Amino acid sequence: MFNSLSEKLESAFKNLKGEARINDLNIANTVKDIRRALIDADVNFKIAKEFTDKVREKATGEKVINAISPGQLMVKIVQDELTELMGGSEAQFNVTGNPAIILIAGLQGSGKTTFTGKLANYLKTKKAKSVLLVAADVYRPAAIDQLTVLAGQVGVDVYSEPENKNPVEIAQNAIKEAKTRNKNVIIIDTAGRLAVDEVMMTEVANIKAAVNPAEILFVVDSMTGQDAVNTAKAFNDRLDFTGVVLTKLDGDTRGGAALSIKYTVNKPIKFVSSGEKMDTLDVFYPDRMAQRILGMGDITSLVEKAQAQYDEAEAKKLEKKIRKNQFDFQDFMDQLQQIKKMGNLKDLMGMIPGVGKAMKDIDIKDDAFKGIEAMISSMTPFERANPDSLTPSRKQRIARGSGKDIAEINAFMKQFEQMKQMMKMMNNMPMGRMPGLRR
Ligand code: GDP
C-alpha cells in the first residue's frame, strides 16, 4: 500500500542526512521533494502546496534538540501533518436508533455491496449487533443475489422485494421488518451507476429523506485517485454524507484518495476495506495510516490483530511449557495456525516498523510455512510431543512423508532447538529489563 509514496518521502528526508541543523536551504530542498511525492501520489496540487507550506512553517526555526536529528524531526513534522490531513483522530461511527439505519452510496463497482457484507460482519462480531441487510438496488436482479450470498457468508438476514421497483418503499418496509425481527441495525445497499448521474443521486436522496439514516457512508474505490475525490464531492454536495469508506486498499493504490478526501469534502474516512474476504475491513485511524505511509509500520494494528487471537489460558499454558523447556512440534504448529489466522502474511509483516520497506519486492507467499507444516504433519503425535525422539530412521520416514530430504529435516530441527532456547531465555527474563518490551 502506498509504496511509491513511502519511497519518495523517504528519499525526500535524505536531503537532511548528515546535516547538523535544519536551515532554510535544506528545508526548501526537502519540502520540494515532499511536494513532488504527494503530487505523484495523485494528491491535488493545491492540497500538496498547502501541506508543504505548513511543513516548512513548522520546520523553520525548530531547534534540533540533542536526541533527534534534523531528519527525524522532519519525519515527525510530516507525520503530524499527514495525520491531520487525513482527519486527525478516529471518527465515531453512529449506530443509534431502533433500528439504526445505515445508508450506503457510491458508484457501481466501487465495492458497495462487498462493503455492506463486511460492515454487517463487523457490527455482528465486534459490536454484537443483529443486522438486517436491505437490497435496494432495483435495477440489477443480480444485486439481490450478490447481497444474499455475502449475507450467507457472514450469517445475517437479507430483506428484499424482487417485484418492487420503488427503493424508498423497500427501505421503509425493511424498517418495519427489522422491528418485528428485533434487528438493531439495518444497512441499505443502494443502486450505483458507472458515473455520477442525476437519477441515481435523486434516488438515494429520496431514500435518505424517507428513512433518516444515522450514517450515510460514501463508498469509493481508492484506486481511482483524483476521480475518487471528484466523485466524493458530487455525492457530498447532494447527500451530505457522514463518512467515507475507501475500498481496494490491498491494490496498488497511490494514496491520493486517502490523502485528499477529508480535505476536499470535510468528512472523515471511517473504514478502509482491503480485500474480497468478509473480514478485511478496518476502522480508519489517521495516525496509524500516517505511520504506515512513512514506513514506520503500524505496530498498533498488529498488536490489535494479535490481541483478537489471544487466548489468556492458552498463553499461560504455553508459557509454562516454554519455561520447562517442553515446547514441542505440536505447540509450534498451533502457533503457526494462530499467525495464519491473523491474516495475510505479507500484510502482517509490513506492519512491523522497518520491515514493510525491506520486504516490498520480496514475494512472500501465504504458504511460507508450508514446508514446516508438511514436516510436522508427517510426524506421529508421539514425535510431535517429544522433539528428542527423532532417531535417524524416524527422520527418514518424516523426510519421505513430507517430500523433503534429510538435510532439510536436520536444518529445521536445529532451527527449532535454537528457537526453543531463545524463547526460554526471553521467558525467564523480567519483562521490565527487556529493551522495547513492556507489559
Ligand atoms: P458495487 O457495484 O459497488 O456493489 O461493487 P461490488 O461490491 O460488487 O465490488 C466490485 C468488485 O470489486 C467485486 O469484484 C469485488 O469483489 C471487488 N472488491 C470490493 N471491495 C474490494 C476490496 O477491498 N479489495 C479488492 N481487491 N476487491 C474488492
TrEMBL record:
Cellular compartments annotated: Cytoplasm
Top-level taxon of the source organism: Bacteria
Spans traversing the lipid bilayer: none
Pfam family, one: SRP54
Enzyme Commission number(s) from the entry: 3.6.5.4
HAMAP family cross-referenced by the UniProt entry: SRP54 (MF_00306)
Protein purpose: Involved in targeting and insertion of nascent membrane proteins into the cytoplasmic membrane. Binds to the hydrophobic signal sequence of the ribosome-nascent chain (RNC) as it emerges from the ribosomes. The SRP-RNC complex is then targeted to the cytoplasmic membrane where it interacts with the SRP receptor FtsY.
Protein name: Signal recognition particle protein
The species this protein was found in: Sediminibacterium roseum
Lineage: Bacteria, Pseudomonadati, Bacteroidota, Chitinophagia, Chitinophagales
